[in-house]
Amino acid sequence: MDLGAPGSGDGLWRGPALATGDDGAGRRAVLVPALGFGVLGAACFATSGALGWLAEATGAAAPPDLSPNDPTLQRSLSMQATDHAPHSRTIRCVILDWAGTAVDFGCLAPVEAFVATLAEAGLTIDTASARGPMGLEKRAHMRALLDLPAIAARWREKTGAPPDETLLDRLYARFRTVQLQVIPRYAAPIPGLIEAIARLRAAGISIGSNSGYDSAMMATLAAKAAEAGYAPDVVISSDDAAHGRPFPDMAWQAAMRLGAPEAARCVKVDDTTAGVAEGVNAGMWSIGVTDSGNEIGLSLADWQALDEAERATRRAAAADRLRASGAHLVIDTVADLPDAVALLESRLAAGERP
Question: Which of 104, 165, 214, 305 is most buried, judging by how many CB atoms fall within 10 Å of its CB?
């Protein structure tokens, strides 16, 4: 586990300077790099129709406004009113990704579904390429795969035309069917997850989650995970938000539903570069996960079969990529999460902010 070096916080809600991303509908938007408000402020900012995007400058559509009577906003208002120490040096919630972070060691289920779906269409793709856009909403992920030069060239050879929206719609519909069939085989919790969550809850920390999976996929996965003892307090699916990763929508929604009073007291945990960037863009502490995640991409058995030197080499390369996406800390697996959160609390106590 590499817990990293402390950064220099200034108390602002801060993401990468003018970080950009695709919202899954082919639009580009720019994230405001510094906003001086917490989760409650984000909710109130949403009611103005802005929510942190320079929509007018980029042409990106803003997420739907929150009504003053929206339960999410009301819960945040209630928590803000009852939290008499808004700058307390304690973490209030941890928001975990699913495949590769909490369940499905190696993040195998999405890869299998993408590879199989493309193969049915006569498009062969290797697993490394299929993993490239991991963390995005799944339709955006399929779009990114079709945009790969090799895939686009093969489709052009096959049909005489480049991949288009009609193909994307057809392949994504088939992908959803395949993914729903595959998910139950990859729902086992990462070793140490159940114990880690118990320790965090014992410390008064709420557990949220989000995913690039849509609500139907998440219903299947969450039910299987619950059978194994993992049931987060909040589950946010990709179709619950106007924008997918690396935009902060899903992380903000989870934090507001959990009643977190400010971003600096929230932790996002993810095994993908897009998921790490989501946490940073949300103004939260962002923790990357190496051994069980997409950046290494091996099943538990295959990972354990490697000698220690090879594991160390692959772990270091994965950690470098996660840190390059903004991770404040990098851990081996979710089993290390309670100690990592304790370290973040010590950094908060020293006056550091994410």
Answer: 104
